[in-house]
Amino acid sequence: MDNIFNENSDIQLVDIENSIKSSYLDYSMSVIIGRALPDARDGLKPVHRRILYAMNDLNVGSRSAYKKSARIVGDVIGKYHPHGDTAVYDALVRMAQSFSMRYPTIDGQGNFGSVDGDGAAAMRYTEARMTILAEELLRDIDKDTVDFVPNYDDSLSEPDVLPSRVPNLLLNGSSGIAVGMATNIPPHSLNELIDGLLHLLENKDASLEELMQFIKGPDFPTAGIIYGKKGIIEAYRTGRGRIKIRAKTHIEKKSNKDIIVIDELPYQTNKARLIEQIAELVKEKQIEGISEVRDESDREGIRVVIELKREAMSDIVLNNLFKSTTMESTFGVIMLAIHNKEPKIFSLKELLNLFLTHRKTVIIRATIFDLQKARARAHILEGLKIALDDIDEVIALIKNSADNVSAKEALVEKFKLSELQAHAILEMRLGRLTGLERDKIENELKDLIQEIERLEKILKSEEELENLIREELKEMRNKFNVPRITQIEDDYEDIDVEDLIPNENMVVTITHRGYIKRMPSKQYEKQKRGGKGKLAATTYDDDFIENFFTANTHDTLMFVTDRGQLYWLKVYKIPEGTRVAKGKAVVNLINLQADEKIMAIIPTADFDESKSLCFFTKNGIVKRTNLSEYQNIRSVGVRAINLDEKDELVTAIIVQRDENEPFDVQNDAMKINDENQNEDENLEENNQGKMLFAVTKKGMCIKFPLAKVREIGRVSRGVTAIKFKEKNDELVGAVVIENDQQEILSISAKGIGKRTNAGEYRLQSRGGKGVICMKLTDKTKDLISVVIVDESMDLMALTSSAKMIRVDMQSIRKAGRNTSGVIVVNVENDEVISIAKCPKQEEEDNDSEMDLNLN
């Protein structure tokens, strides 16, 4: 035995443990990198990428004739993928199945299987070609946009990744089992992915919450209902999560019996097997109340009918079906993909950023390719232009040359041309000497120079590069504009962040310098009329509280700025502070532009179409827009109103539309007659609805029907509410009046106020000069604002020194229209700057005062 291992023997001793470990690691990496996992950039596994590239070689595009699947599979195996034909054909079949792929990349002709689990016909019977989407994955591959690597026998080269103009990994998802790891990425809506990418381009530091305003969740090709958001959020944040999917059903009636109809199935659910499963459970009496199950599906869609017994309750049976069958399934998300030849689990934002980085690389490489090509062509055209300018001398030089070589050398020497230019001149046909051909050369050269400048600008500017990506993404969205088909519903078991926030009434304050905070309204005890108030905030010497209001923690705040933009913010997202706390800068909570100033803040609990948002400006303009037009707000805000020069927003009010008022949104404000209609005589007897009531600084007011202000689009100016008698007058407040039995509370800068019956103010046409609202004197100063009296609420007043006082509305005396009123707030040397209503607080009267300390 010893003589076998002599010095001349080729046999070597190897440690079996190390050998097996090394071999298994090589095998594992080969499976991980080369077969089972997709690339994070184009979302394709090697077999899918090779199928598409082979079809591109065969010119089997979306507009070409179908080719036999066997021919395509043969090319893939022979050139790029040295594995079994069954594996390649199975991959090709799945790429063509509309129930497997959200956006199929193969257009199949023939039997490519069904949702019942039927297999595809043999590859010799089916035909295929690429879809338009597949062409977008391969676009510009011939422009040196991606790296190419040798194929398995080094006879050809294949792309390491595809240029991919769409985020295909998230678009179509991927699933695969490697050695010791697996991936399971759900498909998504292209529209939502592009909206998310566009937002990420604008906001590099966008949070997951911001991105999920655009990317709601997976969008499965079989539709269905995603039940609950917790799994989506967890998957997008960590790369792992569990998403519950339910079949979509509806209930029909038949002879006093309920029928459950399944319209859509959870992703990857086998319909035939589901029907068998239901029948088996009924047979074993694990589910009771079902009399018959049948499949009525056709080419129009899925329809599985479950007939119930007469005494059965559909809700109970349906819940049992969800619990016991695949009508409810769980999709385990594992967002694992290959990046830099290594497997990694990615979050949603990381995958979006990877795609944008990939597109930047592709566009840069394509631009360099186009630039080199343009420069080369321009170089040739410059040579031809030189030749055409001296054509007689060129022809004479060529005629006197012994051969092509000497002619080329003479041209180079005589006209300082390059060899390429000289060769192009020698190859030029005589037909190019005509005037028309000369113009073509000059125009082509001019266009090329402009194109070179454009390409160089892209390479030099990150902004130009990102603009190109934006236009590209918008083009893809317009080209493949397919709405979401999978619904997302809240699960009663989910606990949303908002659900953890208690419903509390809050006082929200915002200072002149833009500091905002919220405090429980119970911190401000009710005081007697004439009290001096409590300190609402500690401010800087040059700052003061400019606005305040009361709202619920779950309400949405709409911020309208001096530029007419509107922003969103939930009340509970505002930091809570003490009465003396300064608060947080509002620019840290909403995305305000430089020097943009908040002019109105409106709280709302919903965005129902039956409500309108009425804007009033300092110059007496009123504008009304349906509230639903403001429900989808981006971080950069939306246009709320167009303001005239030197005009400012005073207030904005949410108004419930009258039941008899037609819903007619006019997008063109110019169609609305802005002239005084002289209808005062008939207004009182004809008016049956709500009224708008606006007041001015000089104590004038106007009351006119809400219906006289029609709803118009967001991007519009509005119409005249009141015309001022005095040049220095301006609108300072407005309210909505439900009926003339209501009372209006008005208050002046010196704390003088009164309650007046709304019926004392004559109803006028919009655009009139109004009537006296409050008698003003030096003791009262200017009118500040008005509110509608609600004796179940308290009045809260804010002074210029940042003091707040809470007053019971019942304690304020009623007075006539042309009077001043009584002292509501004892301001002494101070002035009232704002008033608002707040929920009544049942506490002991308290005359205590906290001194203001600005230091």
Automatic annotation (TrEMBL):
Heterotetramer, composed of two GyrA and two GyrB chains. In the heterotetramer, GyrA contains the active site tyrosine that forms a transient covalent intermediate with DNA, while GyrB binds cofactors and catalyzes ATP hydrolysis. CDD domains: TOP4c. The active site is at Y125. It comes from Campylobacter cuniculorum DSM 23162 = LMG 24588. SMART domains: TOP4c. Pfam families: DNA_gyraseA_C (PF03989), DNA_topoisoIV (PF00521). One of its GO terms (molecular function) is DNA negative supercoiling activity. A type II topoisomerase that negatively supercoils closed circular double-stranded (ds) DNA in an ATP-dependent manner to modulate DNA topology and maintain chromosomes in an underwound state. Negative supercoiling favors strand separation, and DNA replication, transcription, recombination and repair, all of which involve strand separation. Also able to catalyze the interconversion of other topological isomers of dsDNA rings, including catenanes and knotted rings. Type II topoisomerases break and join 2 DNA strands simultaneously in an ATP-dependent manner. It comes from the Bacteria. GO terms for biological process: DNA topological change; DNA-templated DNA replication; response to antibiotic. GO terms for cellular component: chromosome; cytoplasm; DNA topoisomerase type II (double strand cut, ATP-hydrolyzing) complex. Few gyrases are as efficient as E.coli at forming negative supercoils. Not all organisms have 2 type II topoisomerases; in organisms with a single type II topoisomerase this enzyme also has to decatenate newly replicated chromosomes. Its main location: cytoplasm. Its EC number is 5.6.2.2. Belongs to the type II topoisomerase GyrA/ParC subunit family. It is an enzyme of class 5 (isomerase). It catalyses: ATP-dependent breakage, passage and rejoining of double-stranded DNA. This is DNA gyrase subunit A. It is found in: Cytoplasm. Residues 37-500 form the Topo IIA-type catalytic domain. A motif (GyrA-box) lies at residues 527-533. Keywords: Antibiotic resistance, ATP-binding, Coiled coil, Cytoplasm, DNA-binding, Isomerase, Nucleotide-binding, Topoisomerase. Residues 438-479 form a coiled coil.
